[in-house]
Every structure is written in structure tokens, then in C-alpha cells.
Amino acid sequence: MNEPNATPHTQPTHATPPTATGKNQRLMSLDVLRGLTVMLMIFVNNGAGDDIFPMLKHAKWNGMTLADLVFPFFLFIMGVASYLSLKKYQFEWSAPLVRKIMKRTVLLFAIGLGLNWFHMLCAGNPFDLAHLRVMGVMQRIGLCYGFTSFAVLIFATVARASGTKRAMTGGLSALIAIIIIYHAFMLLAYGGFNYDASTNFLAQFDQTILGSDHLYHKSPVDPEGLSSTLAAACNTLIGFLMASLAFGKRRPDPARVALRVFGDGGGLLLVLATLLCGFISLNKRVWSPTYILMTCALAALLQAALIALIDVYPMARKWMVAKGLGKLTLIFGTNPLFLYVGSEMVAIVLSAIGVSDAYYNLLHSAIPSAAWASVAYSLTFVALMTLMGYPLWKRRIFIKL
Q: Could you give the CA distance from residue 236 to residue 39 in angstroms, rounded to a whole number?
């Protein structure tokens, strides 16, 4: 299966922190950011032909393209929304909450496995389970969600026991730092940047745990392998941490506080990532520390911009949400799971029956540039998913786990 670029976030879309009005309203800017991410995911994941603009493809190894932003943005968004969801439970252990976390984690993983198997089914080898890819974007996001949720509950328990409210945020900050430093050390000390599976410790780890036949083989390292999933969880942890700082206390003007937290936090991470890029390369395949910090920085800054346009300034909110791109993003942002899984299944089926190639060739016959013909194909796919998602959005039907 083609390497997916993102996976949808499955937190309740009705999670609602206080806004500038002082009432509990939907965090519309989060839905818009999620929608933009899903739209971009579907767009870059459905390019056709061999000639695609470089920025719409994943970087082969070191470096970062527009396509490389989608998945980490989703993990960051998941962290923000997880805070809003877990806050309703006061971050306290309970049987219903643990069941809820476990259910979502398992279902996300199972859906990812199902997509991998569906690709094998349409390729005509549904019983070749010995070569079924175990990991994937859905599987990784499930593991990141489960890890973050349980880590938060543990640190919240410590905070209550110590009587220190800052213990949860302090503990999460320390955990993020430890994971990033550890991952940087392992990458630099044990060949994590080697473009050779035989000498790259991430590839060797995944081969040992999962087996070579169950991995992605279009790059030396499985980009969603187990070996880098803990590092990927940092994107979710950072999103959660920023949300806790932004929405953790009742304030007279909470939207502006959130704007400041995401803006300042994103700026700080951007400076840190830029400084470290001189020593550690940006690399999605190995989920390098600079990649973590840079993508979280960009996601936070974009979230800050959307908070300003949607949650702070009423006139901008009216235009952003009710018209044009803003309205379109809400279609994708309120049903990301349905539209992501639907787009993957439709793409697999169309490819299997030859429709994808036929339609791309038709476009290419009318558009001389192969790259622009690919863009036209991707836009058609986004339009198709819009038609699938619009009735659900119109009827306020939100499909979630």
C-alpha cells in the first residue's frame, strides 16, 4: 500500500474549551486545522502518475516537504483534543475512562490493519498474511493516543498525591525531553541516519520485533515502525502540554490566552528546532528530534493563527467559518476518520480496477504537464471526498470512535 501521509484524529469533535465569549463553545479553530490537515492528506496521498511536484511527495530521506507535515500535525492536533476530552474526566482513573482509551487504541490499530489487508484483498492475495504489514499510520496514531492518555493519567495522579498542580505539566515536559534526548542519542550513536537497513538500528529493531515480511519496504526504515513510534508520541504529548497551558485555568479572556500560548510556544520550538538542525537532520522516516520540534512549532503557529482568526476576532470568524475554505475545512474536520478511511478504500479500489490510471491518462491528454495533471487528479479526489462528507456535516452527523 502507498505510504499514507496522515491519519485522522478520533477525539470527540464536540470537546469545547471556554472561548473569548466566556461560554463553553466548540473549539472551531481546532476543527478547521484538523480539516485543513485531512484535506492536504487526501490531496498529497492521491497524486497520480510518475511526475509529481517534489513538495507533494515525501522527502526520500533527510529534508522535509509539505507532504511531511500532515501526519505530525495530526498527532499534535490529537494531543490538543485529548486534553479537552480527558479534562471532562478530571484526569482521574476510572473503569469507563480506561475502557474508552483501550477501545480507541485497539480500534485505531485494527482499522489500520484492516486497510493494509484490504489492499492485499484488492491485489488478489487476501490470504497471504505472512506478508501483511503490521504497522501503519492508523496503528501509530492509536499507539500514540494510548501512550499519551495513560502517561497523562499517571502524572495527574502524582500531581494530586503531591498536592502540586504543576506536577502534571512538569512531568510531561520532563518525559518529552527524556524521549527526545534518548532518541537523538540512539540515532547519532547507532546509525539511525544510515540509508541502509543492514546498518540502521531502527530497521534492525523492527525486523527483530515484527519480522522483515511485515514491514514497509520502500525505504530502509519503516516510516511508521515500532522503533520510532515513541518519538512520534512526542508530537501528541507536546500538543497536550500546550493545550493544558492554554486551557488549564479559567481566565477572563481565554481565547487570547490560548493565542499567546500557542504563538509563544510555537515560536520557541521553531527557534530550538532551527538551532538543532545544524547538528541533527530533519527526517520523517526516522522521526528525528528536529522533525518533532519543527513540525510541532509549525502546527502550534498555525493553530495560533486560526485561533486569532476564528476564536478571537468575530468578523474574521464569520468569514472563515461560514464561507469558502473555512466552511470546506469543517466538512473534513468534523468527520476525519470517515473521510480518511473512505479515501484510502476508494483509492485502493479505483487503482485495482484500473480507473485511476484511465482517469489520469484522460486528464494528461488535456493537460500537457504531467505534474499538473497529477494535481488535477488529486483535486478531483478531494472533491469526491467533499461530496461524501457534506451530507454528514450538513446533518451534524459526526462519526467517531
A: 20
**Residue 321 confidence (pLDDT) above 90:** no
Residue 275 near residue 199 (C-beta atoms within 8 A): no
pLDDT, tens digit, for every residue of 323-372?
666 778 888 988 988 899 999 999 999 999 989 999 999 999 999 999 99
Closest CA to 295 of 4, 83, 43, 66: 66
Can you read off the three cell numbers belonging to residue 135? 504497522
Place of cell 493553530: 303
Assign residue 287 a region (left: φ > 0; alpha: ψ between -120 and 50; beta: otherwise): left
Domain ranges of the chain: 28-394
- Do 7 and 138 contact (CB within 8 A), yes or no? yes
pLDDT at 26: 52
Question: Residue with C-alpha cell 499519551?
Answer: 148
Per-residue model confidence as pLDDT tens digits over 125-178:
989 999 999 999 999 999 999 999 999 999 999 988 887 777 888 999 999 999
Residues 401 and 399: their CA atoms lie apart, in Å, by 7
The secondary structure of 300-339 as a DSSP string is HHHHHHHIIIIII-HHHHHHHHHSHHHHHHHHHHSSHHHH
User: How far from 312 is each of 83, 223, 300, 325, 363, CA to CA, in Å?
Assistant: 21, 38, 16, 18, 43
3-state secondary structure of 44: helix
What is the rounded (10 degree) CA torsion for 270, 271, 272, 277? 80
Question: How many angstroms separate the CA atoms of 105 and 138, rounded?
Answer: 10
Residues 237 and 146 sit within 8 Å (Cβ to Cβ): no
Q: Across the strands, what pairs with 332?
A: none
